[in-house]
Amino acid sequence: MNREGRGATAPMEAASTAPITFTGNKALDLEEGLLFEIGRTDVTGVDLDEPEAFSPRLGGLQRTAPLGLPGLSEPEAMRHYVRLSRMNYGIDSGLFPLGSCTMKHNPRLNERMARLSGFADLHPLQPVSTAQGALSVISELCRYLMVLTGMQAVAFTPKAGAHGELCGMMAIKAALAARGEKRHIVLVPESAHGTNPATAALLGYEVKSIPARPDGTVDPESVKAALSTDVAALMLTNPNTCGLFERDVVAIAEAVHAVGAYFYADGANFNAILGKVRIGDLGVDAMHINLHKTFSTPHGGGGPGAGPVVLSEALAPFAPVPAVVADGSGLRFIEEAGAEGAEQALGRMCAFHGQMGMFVRALSWMLSHGADGMRQASEDAVLSANYVRACLMDVMSAPFAERPAMHEALFDDAWLDGTGLSTLDIAKALIDEGYHPMTVYFPLVVHGAMLIEPTESESKASLDLFIAALRDLAMAAKAGDKDRFLGAPYYAPRRRLDETRAARMPVLRWTKPVALPRAAE
Amino acid sequence: MRYLPLTPDDRVEMLARIGTASVDDLFADIPKDKRLTALPDLPLRKGELDVERTLARLAARNVPAGSVPFFVGAGAYRHHVPASVDHLIQRSEFLTSYTPYQPEIAQGTLQYLFEFQTQVAELTGMEVANASMYDGSTAAAEGVLMAHRLTKRDKAVLAGNLHPHYRETIATVCAHANQPLVVLPPAPGGDDDVLSSIDETVSCVVVQTPDVFGHLVDLKPIAEKAHAAGALLVAVFTEAVSLGLIEPPGAQGADIVVGEGQSIGNALNFGGPYVGLFATRQKFVRQMPGRLAGETLDAEGRRGFVLTLSTREQHIRREKATSNICTNSGLCALAFTIHLSLLGEAGLTRLARINHAAACDLADRLAALDGVSMLNESFFNEFTIRVKGDAAEVIERLAEKGILGGVPYSRLAPKAGLDDLILVAATETTTADDRAAYAAALKEVLA
User: Fold this and answer.
1) Each residue of A41-66: pLDDT tens digit?
2) Residue B367 class from Cβ within 10 Å (0-12 exposed, 13-18 middle, 19+ buried)?
3) How does DSSP classify residue B99?
4) How close, in Å, is residue A321 to chain B by CA atoms?
5) What is the mean pLDDT of residues B329-345?
6) Residue A127, SS3?
7) pTM for this one?
8) Can you tell me the distance from the alpha carbon of B288 to that of B307, in angstroms, rounded to the nearest whole number?
9) B22 contact A CB<8A
10) Which of A185, A425, A444, B82 makes an SS bond possible with A421, Cβ 3.0 to 4.6 Å?
């Protein structure tokens, strides 16, 4: 309309240089203080009525001093957390090619299903007669995992991948103990995730490293050379962290078994082989499955995850409690180690029955995809990774490219020689281009590694835009456009952060600022 | 398939660019005789409506806590969570983000973790807290391992009234790490004697308050004796709301405080996901497990946050790490911190009082019944009754009457020989009518 008032603004009338704002805000890009700076201890966003008079029975242990916890009204809380959320990058924001982390689409149906009151509002210790549907979810999830892996049992309670590793390695230790054996060494390839050696060490094992051969995979001969009757297990990630399938896996498994040791597989990269091969057919004895990777339960900024472990026949008797079993009246739990049906159980991994909320989400994902969709998802993930590698190989350097990649495309930093730039600089420049960086400096066996995992969730158009952005950056790097990289990111909510300062003078919590005495005027 | 954006044409084009004839060629490194061509034992894809029907049918076979008078606790508690909490944690940028490895585009996660750490430290009366563990039980196990590292001893003492699941979780780790453990017998009457087990060989004593039977434990004499013996006190709680009313473990001399954070911000979820809280003294921070968010400055001098002290962690230290933990409970920690900031100190204190009042009311109603004796002199929102007969049977019969009346202790520890005890919890979600209905039903069951 605009019958009166000012006329429409033409874009060219705007000033060409951006002023520094007084608030530090930049339009939609808003700064936000700490909860402790905006909240007050006498404010609450929850209306509760004071209870009627009663005499407390706290045994003289009631709190006497204030805690100092600030409160926010609901509008303040909404604004605080919405503003914080806007400083984050998620899968829904854009392509998130974080290698080894499988950042695939998180269907919202799964969120809705996990929030059904019959699942979310269910107590772990209410009578099992009132929770038969929940036990069915657990048993159905386990059935899917067994079919997909060809394994005999599932330890479903571990809370994340590393917890699953701990569970699997405990099962191995228990199996050895049942044989009357005590072994001291665990073999771990150089390219393994840090959780593998950390888990083995936690159980008192000496960790021995296995080098990779020049093509990036493990040579059965070097495994054989390291094997002895003092080796408890080999922990192997397959596909490995270089994104390659360990093609000699069967020979490796045979060698491990030949000395009476067990084969633990790290299932972090299961997405590449879902429905394509069953690890039980490859001689694996135990493998954890990150439901928060392959089966798309949301990462949520670092968890919760879920790390159920599939077990071979040899290890099945040692699964921790609880277990779900069927009897005449329906499903029930075996909840104590040593009880009938769990005579050799290794113990208990955690309170209650594992990550039920994640089981529902993962089962929802499996039902949605079905046998055909799961195989297609795996194929698309592998196809996309190979496509990204093929489109970037001429401008970046890809080690081990003579072999097909699985679901990840690995690059090193040889292509940056002479540019004065590092892998980190490329990652930070990618942020300015609107992408979450790839995994950097992992695996450790590749110099300046950049590990790109596009997953099956990207369209070809999206992959092409990402490839174009990386190609442009590669050209700019080689053309000596250093400032673009060394100062990056320029456009993120923060520029590069000083991690050395954070570690040297750790400030791990807010503390009330000390009021400085006023200077004499 | 609705989640897979590639079209058949895209796939053909991409294969051509790769220079391979078929997608099978990309799987060539898998031994040919091991490759699957189909998954005959699983059904084909389903639409949303179908999946929803299938799962809703399973959900309908459960009795949700909110549909009946509900008194079940023993380590997981039903509280009202404000609607805004669930809305906020489902913001895409929180829900679909990863561990904040690239801090410049993860300030949202890092700042709320920093705020969470501060809240947990204040709530527990400690100096520092980490960015969360899986749950209370695994946090307790990590607390024991940390105490071992700090004292260079390897024998822990577990109080008899520690939640049996926590006890077993710790015992499982210690057994597989070849560490001795002293486990005291349960003391339902509250006369749990940990003092006499503390000596110079002990790394730590693990004490829960309120304990599994609901008794509040005075930690101060235990802390004193432990410190005199060069040992540490690991204090455990399973009901975080209790800290609104009870003296924080930090103020009572605890060195490591671990607990379950589920009851603030998180649903029951049939046992998980939950959120482990872990706090300690500043001087012990370098032996702490788990992630830590810390404050720093960016290149323009603005305040920002990063993950820090990561030289303790597995991705840097590998076999020398303080823990193997990687993924933790970020989103549950977010729910915790949002709910706690909505409550604030004023709201938390009042919520705790309401819980205590509800439990006092219920305790009076149940203690008045024939065949029921009350075991607690002190409690917060949960206490233990001894009933005539088998507690598990009583609970089943109450369930048949539409009342979920608590947890038989025998469910947690079948071999303890304590088959007549019921742990009963009452939170703000119970009404006076619910409590009256429970008393009436229990009277009938015991008659």
Assistant:
1) 999 999 999 999 999 999 999 999 99
2) middle
3) S
4) 10
5) 98
6) coil
7) 0.97
8) 14
9) no
10) A425
